[in-house]
Amino acid sequence: MRRFLMAATLCLAQPAFGQDYAEESLPDVNQETQAVALMDTLRCVVCQGQPISGSNADLARDMRRLVRERIAAGESPETVRAWLVSRYGQWVSLKPEVNELTAPLWLIPLIAMGGAGLLYSRRFKRKKK
Amino acid sequence: MKRSWVFWLPVAVAIAMFATFLVALVRPSDRAIVSQLVGHALPAFEAPAAMPDQPGTNSRDYADGKPRLLNVFASWCGPCVAEIPVLLQLQAMGVEINGVAVHDKPEDLARFFAENGNPYARVGLDQGGRAQIAFGSAGVPETFIIDGKGRVVGQHIGVITEADIPDILAKLKGS
C-alpha cells in the first residue's frame, strides 16, 4: 500500500518537473492572450475541421506548445503563423484573408449586388414610361 | 416580348453552380496536406538516437551527395507496420532509409523492430513532434525523398506499397 501511495504521489508530482506549454498557460498574461488568439485561428492538420486550441490530437498539442514557446521567445503571432504556413501551406491558417485565390469570394457578392441593382434600376425606369 | 440574354444569365449561373457541386460530390477533393517543403532544403531538425546500437539523425546528415529516404513513423502506428516489408525491400535494393519516430519510446521501438524488422540506417526520436512540424508532415507514415544536396524532392503521404517502389526509385535517381 505504501509503495502504491509513493508511486501515485510520484505520478502526480511529475508535471511540476517541467512545464509543458502544450496545456499550460504562459506566465505573461499578454503573451498568453496572443497565443490563444493565434491557436484559435490555426487549423489542426490531423482533425482538419478544428482549430488547434480545441483538439486533442497529439500534433495539435505539439503545435500549441510550439505557438506558446515561440510567442514566449518574443515572436509575433503573425510570424508564427507565417512559419507554419511555410510548412503546411495556407491551409493551416483559419484566418480569412484576401489574396488572389480568395478574391472571388469577396468580390462575387459585390458584383452580384451591383448587377442586381443595375437590373432593378432599369426595370423601374421602364415602368415610369 | 423577346427575352434578352440578361434573363438567361442567372439560369446559366445556376446551372454552372450545380454542375460544380455535382463534380465535387462525385469526385471529392484530395484532403491530404502536402508539405510546402518539396523543392526546398530539408529544415534544421534534431532527432537523438532512439536505439543504443544505432545513431540518431539530424539535418546535417543529408547533404553528403547520397540521396536517401526520410521516413516519419511511429511504433504505435498500425499502417507503419504494413510499410516495413516494403522498406526492407527498398533497403535490399541499396536505398538508405532514415527513420524519425514521432511520440515514441525506445522500449516500444525495440519491440516494434523485433517484431517487424528494422529497415533504417539511423533512427531518431522526435520529441514533442518538433521535427514532424518542421517537415510540414501531418501524420504517420510519411516519407520524404531527399537528394544528395539535402533538398526535399518528393513526399509520399501514407503507406508505401510495392506499387510505389518504381516511382520512389525514379525520384531518388533523378535527384
Report on this model:
By secondary structure, chain A is mostly helical. Chain A has helices at 2-13, 29-40, 58-72, 77-88, 103-128. The longest helix of chain A has 26 residues, at 103-128. Chain A starts with a helix and ends with a helix. With 175 residues, chain B is an alpha/beta fold. Chain B has 5 helices and 7 strands. The chains are: A mainly alpha (129), B alpha/beta (175). At the A-B interface, helix 3 and helix 4 of A face helix 4 of B.
Number of strands of chain B: 7
Low-confidence stretches of chain A: 13-17
**Beta-strand percentage range of chain A:** under 5%
Helix content of chain B: 25-40%
Strand order of the largest sheet of chain B: 5-4-3-6-7
Distance between the termini of chain A: 98 Å
Largest interface: A-B, 20 and 19 residues
The percentage of residues in β strands of chain B lies in: 15-25%
Q: Report the radius of gyration of chain A as a whole number of Å.
A: 25 Å
Oligomeric status: heterodimer
Mean pLDDT rating of chain A: 85
Strand-pairing-aware structural class of chain A: mainly alpha
**Total beta-strand segments of chain A:** 0
How many alpha or pi helices of chain B? 5
Q: What percent of the residues of chain A sit in helical stretches (DSSP H or I)?
A: 55-70%
The main sheet of chain A comes to: none
- Low-confidence segments of chain B: none
- Classify the secondary structure makeup of chain B into a structural class: alpha/beta
Radius of gyration of chain B, in angstroms, nearest whole number:
22 Å
Indicate the topology.
The complex is a heterodimer of chains A (129) and B (175).
Chain A: H1 2-13, H2 29-40, H3 58-72, H4 77-88, H5 103-128
Helix pairs in contact in A: 2-3
Chain B: H1 5-26, E1 46-47, E2 57-58, E3 68-73, H2 78-92, E4 97-102, H3 106-116, E5 122-126, H4 130-135, E6 142-146, E7 152-157, H5 165-174
Parallel strand pairs in B: 3-4, 4-5
Antiparallel strand pairs in B: 1-2, 3-6, 6-7
Entry summary:
With 129 residues, chain A is an all-alpha fold. Chain A has helices at 2-13, 29-40, 58-72, 77-88, 103-128. Chain A is elongated and about 95 Å long.
